[in-house]
Write a sequence for this structure.
């Protein structure tokens, strides 16, 4: 059996894994680096999958985060379409799907997550789609045509982004959401109401407080979905369905190797797992978020990049702990949402009148300090909010709500 080996082996070749390899080299790492990914592509931008790529405005090549030559030039040994099946911690080795082994000195798990699958009656029917990869979007292309009836299960960011692209493309779109408002898991009620209005005006039908009980076959093709059966007894006709009900972190490799697992692979502020030679980064990790003062698991590109920076700094001998305040963006129609911080623990909400009619700004405070902000088409407010949160200043809500007050004037002079 062939034995491969590298000083650092990274499992998962996406936002976290690709950034990790790059950061190692930028930090002066001269040892061998292998990047192993189960997808057939070099690391690519995942956010456009539900936006420009689905809309057909971006090609697969344009999705690549770095040009292929960058990996060769930086001596990053890339293994596409290769799945790691097991970790042997005692031997410092991996078992690949091909049966080959791969030795490491340091291992970085950047395995991300996969869409949560539904297991209700009819889930096995054809025509049910999920969205995490280029392959998932390509599988939907043929049916993503004007006039097709699309039912989206789940009114989170991915569901709503797909709804926006689909309705613009001439599909008939219905979103079925179990919670009483869209974005219930990630945003405050004010932002949910804003997006509900936007989508309704665009022609998306929203069914809130409605569960999905099962999928029914089409009358012309019993192997294919034809309708979605809802908890209120209604049946929504569908030519195809997108299930967008969240993510399951890929923790199995780590769990099987006996690493500590919480709501993800458990790591410390240096992205170190319970094994000193194994790091974990990105969507698959649960980690201490200093700004919140508690452990958390985040699904966002900026977080995967920050954790890659941290893990690389440790391997390069210049440890620098996780320090970022989480942020995220979402594009729907001509609206760019930029959200910073986590609003769940706020005790006061301040709405600031936006500068443009299509804008929206909401600040979340706790004990008079800003902990989060959701800014739609409001980059100046977003940039100011990032600093106001980081500086932990005591703020006057009336000043925040007053469009005549320049937010910069609330910041300490630099
Ligand atoms: C449709 C969509 C839209 C999004 N939009 C946004 C957005 O607007 N803004 C934002 O900040 N974030 C967005 N996200 C989330 C963002 O893409 C993720 O946070 C980010 O991709 C996390 O990167 P990661 O490297 O941790 O994991 P992933 O991107 O999930 O990558 C993990 C990789 O590891 C591979 N892998 C897993 N197990 C193995 C194994 N055993 N062996 C080999 N390879 C393995 C997987 O195949 C995958 O390629 C979006 C995600 C999706 C799906």
């Amino acid at each position: 059996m062939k034995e491969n080996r590298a000083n650092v082996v990274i499992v998962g070749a996406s936002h976290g894994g690709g950034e990790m390899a790059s950061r190692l080299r930028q930090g002066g790492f001269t040892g061998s680096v292998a990047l192993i990914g189960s997808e057939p592509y070099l690391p690519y931008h995942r956010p456009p999958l539900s936006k420009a790529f689905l809309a057909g405005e971006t090609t697969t090549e344009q999705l690549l985060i770095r040009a292929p030559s960058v990996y060769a030039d930086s001596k990053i040994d890339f293994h596409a379409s290769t799945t790691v099946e097991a970790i042997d911690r005692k031997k410092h080795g991996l078992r690949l799907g091909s049966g080959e082994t791969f030795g490491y000195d340091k291992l970085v798990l950047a395995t991300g997550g996969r869409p949560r699958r539904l297991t209700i009656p009819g889930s096995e029917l054809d025509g049910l789609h999920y969205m995490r990869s280029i392959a998932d979007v390509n599988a939907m292309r043929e049916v993503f045509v004007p006039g097709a009836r699309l039912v989206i299960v789940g009114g989170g960011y991915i569901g709503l982004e797909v709804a926006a692209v689909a309705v613009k493309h001439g599909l008939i779109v219905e979103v079925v959401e179990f919670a009483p408002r869209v974005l219930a898991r990630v945003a405050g009620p004010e932002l949910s109401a804003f997006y509900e209005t936007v989508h309704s005006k665009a022609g998306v039908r929203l069914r809130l407080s409605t569960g999905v009980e099962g999928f029914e076959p089409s009358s012309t093709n019993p192997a294919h979905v034809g309708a979605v059966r809802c908890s209120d007894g209604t049946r929504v006709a569908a030519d195809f369905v997108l299930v967008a009900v969240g993510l399951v972190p890929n923790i199995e490799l780590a769990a099987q190797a006996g690493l500590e697992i919480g709501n993800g692979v458990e790591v410390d502020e240096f992205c170190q797992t319970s094994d000193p030679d194994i790091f974990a980064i990105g969507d698959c990790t649960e980690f201490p978020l200093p700004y919140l003062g508690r452990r958390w698991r985040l699904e966002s590109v900026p977080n995967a990049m920050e954790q890659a920076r941290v893990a690389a700094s440790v391997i390069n001998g210049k440890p620098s702990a996780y320090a970022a305040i989480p942020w995220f963006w979402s594009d729907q129609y001509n609206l760019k949402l930029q959200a910073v911080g986590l609003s769940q623990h706020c005790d006061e909400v301040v709405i600031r009148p936006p500068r443009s009619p299509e804008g929206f700004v909401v600040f979340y405070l706790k004990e008079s300090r800003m902990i989060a902000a959701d800014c739609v088409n409001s980059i100046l407010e977003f940039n100011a909010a990032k600093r106001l949160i980081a500086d932990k200043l005591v703020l006057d809500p009336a000043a925040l709500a007053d469009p005549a007050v320049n937010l910069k004037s609330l910041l300490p002079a630099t």
Summary: The mean pLDDT is 96. The chain has three domains: 3-114+249-315, 117-245, 334-410.
